[in-house]
Amino acid sequence: MIKFLLDYSSGVPVYRQIIDQIRFGITSGQLKPGEQLPTVRALAVELKVSLNTISKAYRELEIKNILETQQGTGTFINNTEQAVPDKEREGKLEEICVQFSSVALSYGFTLGEIVQELKNIETSKKL
Fold this sequence. Notes:
Blueprint: H1 14-27, E1 36-37, H2 40-47, H3 51-63, E2 67-70, E3 74-77, H4 86-106, H5 111-123
Helix pairs in contact: 1-3, 2-3
């Protein structure tokens, strides 16, 4: 099971953060096909958010065939292969880069310094 971490200052809606974290959990292997997720109520209580927020996230993932809800049993990671479409993947990278560069540039780093640090991190295998 993954530990959900919400960032209320990111500007990203909470339901979207939950979706992204579930998808990351699946692609990283932290969440396995067939694994049960917390109930809507349990996750809402744990994260201190509205039931509707969790329901919206779960419902969107069900529409994309990533989750499957079985009445009376719970919500599970679907057994189908979970590949992120290229267009969605590219859009997410752009979003991450915009957020990241906005923060870095606000601290006065140049794009050259940012690129060099990313290369240093890659070289030292910290990624």
